[in-house]
Amino acid sequence: MAVKIAFYESPDPTGDGVKHFHARAVERETIRMDRLSHFVTHRCTVSESDILAVLTALSDVMVDAFLEGHRVYLRGLGYFDITLTNDEIRSLKEGNVRKVHFKSVKFVPEASLRKRLERGMKFVRASSTIPFSNRLTEEEINEKLAGYFASHPFITRMEMQKLCGFKRSMALACINRLIDEGRLRNMGTRRTPVYVPVEGAFPLPDSEAGE
Fold first, then answer.
1. pLDDT digits over 111-144, tens only?
2. Separation CA 27–CA 74 (nearest Å)
3. The pTM is what?
4. Residue whose C-alpha is closest to residue 56's, from 36, 70, 75, 41
5. How far from each other are the two terminal CA atoms of the chain, in whole angstroms?
6. Angle (CA) 157 163 169, round 5°
7. What angle (nearest 5°) sits at the alpha carbon of residue 188, between those of residues 187 and 190?
C-alpha cells in the first residue's frame, strides 16, 4: 500500500516570485460507513450489520456529547472536539451567546496513531496525467465554485471538471476534500451523486455579492 501524491505550486503570499511546491495526496476516495463495517467484520467476530449499528450509534452519541460541550476520546484514534466562531465583539460587554456559532469539529490524533502512520506510510508519485490543479490554488477553486453556485443549485463531477479544467481523478479528489471539510454534501445517490453546497460555504466576494 502507498499514498499517491502530486506536487502543487504553493501560493506566493510574499510576492517575491520564488516558486514553492507542496505535496498533497491525490486519487483519494472517501471510505463510508458501509465499507468501514465491511472491512471491520473481517478483523473480528462481530457481524457487519452489528458493526454498522454500532458505528451509527457512536455517531449519535458523539453528537450528544458535542451538544453538551464535551470532547470525545477514542482510544487508538485520538480526540474530537468542537470549534466555535463568533460575530465581531469589541468588548466583553458586547459578548452575547447569540453571537457565538458552531464552526467545525477538530480532530487531534493520538500519539500512537501518528507513530503507526509515520512508520507505515509510503508514498508514490501519481500518474503524470493528473493535472496540478490546473495551476489553481484552493482559494481560486473556492472562488470558481462561489461564482458557479450563485446561479446553479448543485454541481456534478463532470461539471467540476469543466469548471476547473480538471481530469476525472482530480475532480473527484477535490470534491472529496470539500465533503471532508463539510462544505459540500451529496444529495443524490451513490451511483448518481449530485453535490450541493453547505450554506455559507462558498460566499461571493463583497464586490460581486453587491452587484
1. 999 999 999 999 998 875 444 445 678 888 999 9
2. 28
3. 0.58
4. 36
5. 50
6. 40
7. 120
The pLDDT score that the predictor gives to residue 168 is 82
List strands edge to edge, sheet with 78-86: 72-74, 78-86, 100-109
> Which has the closest alpha carbon to 8: 123, 125, 133?
133
Helix axes 157-164 and 138-149, enclosed angle (nearest 10) = 120
- How far apart CA 162 and CA 183 sit, in angstroms, is 20
How far CA 141 is from CA of 22, 174, 202, in Å, comes to 17, 9, 10
Contact 154, 196 (CB under 8 A): yes
- Tell me the three cell numbers of residue 156: 456534478
- Reported in sequence order, the residue ranges of 76-189 that DSSP labels E, i.e. its strands, are 78-86, 100-109, 123-125, 184-186
Whether the CA torsion 71, 77, 78, 83 is positive or negative: it is negative
Categorise residue 77: left if φ over 0, alpha if ψ from -120 to 50, beta otherwise: alpha
Largest CA distance in the chain: 61
Alpha-carbon span 145 to 93, nearest angstrom: 38
For the chain, the 3-state helix, strand and coil shares in percent, each to the nearest 5, are 40, 20, 40
Query: Of residues 54 and 165, which shows the higher confidence score?
Result: 54
Residue 3: name the closest of 20, 24, 32, 22 by CA: 24
- Residue 6 near residue 166, CB atoms below 8 Å: no
